[in-house]
Amino acid sequence: MKTALLLVLICALPSLACSSDSKTATEPTMTAEETAPPSDTPESASEQRVVRTEAEWRELLTPEQYHITREAGTERPFSGDYWDKNDVGTYECIGCNQNLFLSNTKFDAGCGWPSFFEPATEGAVIYLEDRSLAPRIRTEIRCSRCDGHLGHVFDDGPPPTGKRYCLNSGAMLFKPAEE
Ligand SMILES: [Zn+2]
Questions:
Q1: Cα 173 to ligand 1 centroid, rounded to whole Å
Q2: Cα(51) to centroid of ligand 1, in Å?
Q3: Is 166 one of the annotated active-site residues of the chain?
Q4: Fewer CB near the last or first residue (10 Å), C or N of the chain?
């Protein structure tokens, strides 16, 4: 009982305190994740997976959208439609219309690309190691339904997550909230 209470107390403290204690908190981050309420449905996302041929993608998307989502391209900063958009609504995937990001998680990172601190749902995006700028290793983000390249996620974002999901406008379609 005593140990359990101590563990709860330690993990209630900031993560610094948690990671500095090697006796009781063996895996502090895992514990925090496991106790979080389940909010995503990755199974349903993969069930509805959208698969198209290269020709179909080329017909559906503009050359710019195709380059970004199917060839992991990056639009020029300050060039896309959404980097300075502040309207209330949802950003959907351009390839499959899955809800990717919500406007209330958008922030101005000053980088010229639309930036968010978290996805609309945990299962909306998948994460891949990107070594294309090696030795710099980045984390690529893709749509979990159609596998379209979206951008990258970095650890220099604002609270509450500290993450910066750096998106290409060309990978998304903005749907304004209903009045
Ligand atoms: Zn998609």
A1: 11
A2: 10
A3: yes
A4: C
Q: Is 148 exposed, middle or buried (0-12, 13-18, 19+ CB in 10 A)?
A: buried
The 3-state DSSP class for residue 27 equals coil
What's the 105 CA to ligand 1 centre distance in angstroms? Answer: 19
Give 146 Cα–ligand 1 centroid separation in angstroms.
Answer: 4
State the Cα–Cα distance between residues 44 and 25, nearest whole angstrom: 34
Cα-to-centroid distance, 171 and ligand 1 (Å): 9
Q: Which of 18, 93, 96, 166 is flagged as catalytic?
A: 166
> Which domains, and CATH codes, for the chain?
2-35 (no CATH), 42-176 (2.170.150.20)
With 0.85 as the threshold, say if the pTM is over it.
Answer: no
- CB within 5 A of ion ligand 1: which residues? 93, 95-96, 98, 143, 145-146, 148
Closest CA to 167 of 85, 89, 88: 85
Q: Please identify which residue in the block is written with the tokens 């290269």.
A: 54
What is d(CA 83, CA 13) in angstroms, rounded to the nearest whole number? 36
pLDDT, tens digit only, all 179 positions of the chain: 444 444 443 444 444 433 444 344 444 444 444 444 444 445 555 568 999 999 999 999 999 999 999 999 999 999 999 999 999 999 999 999 999 999 999 999 999 999 999 999 999 999 999 999 999 999 999 999 999 999 999 999 999 999 999 999 999 999 999 87
